[in-house]
């Protein structure tokens, strides 16, 4: 077996089997890679089995959440409000509410029996589960765009047109009164 491993390593461009093992598995870095891998596995398990969200969707949710926090803090500073630690838990509370909504509907969709109706397997809790997390993704997207507008990004073209149709005032840039008079 040792000879085969040595031959495989050398024929694939490594100096020897030890060099291949160090390059492929990095055993010297297990001290921090092992716990990190375990933590990621735990979070993946929680997201997929408890909340019922695939790891990729969970990653999108987490990125949108932290982007919202970052842009919200920057926008508040830009508006002269600064960072208020008393308001900071609002975002975490919102994330907790989201997790409870998504997780409870996922667990209901798994553990509450559902029946067929007109030949279709109807599981209202599965529908609510997917509806909740899609709603939350859209909500986080809207919050981020609102923060981008507060940061001074100009939303030209399609976004203001859609925002006007959907009555999303935050997407439509307000023109200050003095600029309106200058345009006349």
SSE pattern, N- to C-terminal: HHHHHEEHHH
Number of helices: 8
Shape: extended
User: Helix amount, in percent?
Assistant: over 70%
Radius of gyration: 25 Å
Strand count, sense and barrel status of the largest sheet are: 2 strands, antiparallel
Give the beta-strand count.
2
Summarize the structure in words:
- The structure is a single chain.
- Helix 1 (2-11) crosses helix 2, helix 4 (55-78) packs parallel to helix 6 (124-150) and helix 5 runs antiparallel to helix 6 (124-150).
- Mean pLDDT is 79; it is low at 179-184.
- The chain is mainly α and 184 residues long.
- The chain starts with a helix and ends with a helix.
- The chain has helices spanning 2-11, 17-25, 30-50, 55-78, 89-111, 124-150, 158-166, 177-183; strands at 116-117, 120-121.
- The protein has a domain at 1-50.
- Helix content is 71%, strand content 2%.
- A two-stranded antiparallel ribbon has the order 1-2.
- The radius of gyration is 25 Å and the shape is extended.
């Amino acid at each position: 077996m040792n000879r085969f491993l040595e031959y495989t390593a050398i024929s694939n461009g490594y100096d020897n089997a030890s060099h291949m093992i160090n390059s492929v598995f990095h055993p010297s870095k297990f001290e921090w890679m092992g716990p990190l891998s375990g933590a990621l596995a735990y979070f993946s398990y929680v997201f997929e089995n408890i909340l019922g969200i695939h790891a990729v969707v969970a990653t999108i949710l987490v990125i949108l959440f932290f982007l919202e926090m970052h842009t919200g803090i920057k926008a508040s500073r830009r508006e002269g409000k600064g960072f208020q630690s008393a308001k900071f838990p609002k975002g975490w509370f919102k994330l907790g509410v989201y997790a409870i909504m998504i997780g409870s509907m996922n667990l209901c969709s798994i553990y509450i029996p559902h029946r067929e109706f007109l030949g279709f397997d109807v599981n209202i809790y599965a529908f609510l589960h997917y509806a909740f997390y899609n709603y939350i993704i859209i909500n986080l997207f809207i919050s981020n765009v609102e923060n981008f507008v507060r940061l001074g990004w100009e939303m030209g073209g399609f976004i203001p047109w859609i925002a006007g149709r959907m009555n999303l005032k935050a997407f439509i840039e307000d023109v200050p009164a003095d600029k309106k008079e200058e345009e006349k």
